[in-house]
Amino acid sequence: MAPNLNDDNSLFNFVVKEGNGVKGLVDLGLTEVPDRYIQPPHRRINKQEVAGSLEIVIIDLSELYGPNHEEVVKAIVHASETLGFFQVVNHGVPLEVLDSLKDTAHQFFGQPAEKKAVYLKEVSPSPLVKYGTSFVPENEKSLEWKDYLSMIYTNDADARESWPNDCKEVVLEYINTSTEMVQKVLKALIGNLGVKLDDSRLHELMGFNLVNINFYPACPNPDLTVGAGSHSDAGMLTVLLQDGIGGLYVKKGDQNASVGNEVWVEIPPMHGALVINVGDSLQILSNGRYISAEHRVRTTDVESRVSVPRFIAPLLTVKIGPFPELVARDGVARYKEVIYGEYLKNFFEKSLNGKKSLDFALLD
């Protein structure tokens, strides 16, 4: 039954509890967004105020273990110390896998609502799979214009048993063909800090893996809404496949700039490239040397957009804090030691709000 768009409870039940999502709203033939999706002015993304697209660093990872090794590491480090974002090519993930991922995303979200709703958190047959909308809709005054499918990766066998049939194989291929690349990038970043990690510690720091398939339906009022609010990611690194539509923006320069004075730049889509960004955990471990980039997603009225981020994070039971070698060198620890699972719990208990999640690890 169609909801009463002027009634908050009716809208919430239709979109969130019944699993129709934003896609279900759009399929009703909306000509304007419901009030619940209208963002306060300071959270909206005004295209005119964005500083164009950035000449973002594009790194050829095939050079990482060749004669230009040092230059490639320097480029990765510089991008991670300044913007927290860079794009990689020749990354080892076949282009046909990337194209299949985008096709699969559209196919999954193009299904009838009842087929997707079987994975709603309350009824999902597995804790490894969740379908939902917005970020934490129960805690948000203004909802995000986004639906998503979230899949935790433990091993191939669990994934094949619990993930949706129509996307599990291509997502597994995405994970299995990108893991070596993630390890290389992380080793380069940690090695640059003068820190040596054995394989077991490296596994602890990148042992929790989550893949989201994000779907941003075309929106009748993109200037009033956001696809994803301003935030940084909680983990170590995020590897993101975006389609050709664009709409991903990163905050440049002073991460603490006051609202209205910050500068946002677009991460331009590039066919065949993957976007990598630094997460909060790596900022904490590096004692603030590497920057977890604050970013957000704009909606569009042109066509639906998809993206597929892979979040690489520490195991939930692992303690993260600045590497001791860096504290000894810097003479100060800028963050306290926290258990990653507790950090993540705090991250998901609040609506997205820039880099406020890092306050949880700040020393008093």
TrEMBL record:
UniProt entry tagged with the keyword Ribosomal protein: no
One GO MF term attached to the UniProt entry: metal ion binding
Name the enzyme group at the top EC level.
oxidoreductase
Q: Name one GO biological process term.
A: response to molecule of fungal origin
Cofactor(s) essential for the protein: L-ascorbate
Reactions accelerated catalytically: (E)-feruloyl-CoA + 2-oxoglutarate + O2 = (E)-6-hydroxyferuloyl-CoA + succinate + CO2
Q: Which domain of life is it from?
A: Eukaryota
Q: Which UniProt keywords apply?
A: Dioxygenase, Iron, Metal-binding, Oxidoreductase
Q: Carries keyword Oxidoreductase?
A: yes
The family assignment reads:
Belongs to the iron/ascorbate-dependent oxidoreductase family.
Recorded protein name is: feruloyl-CoA 6-hydroxylase
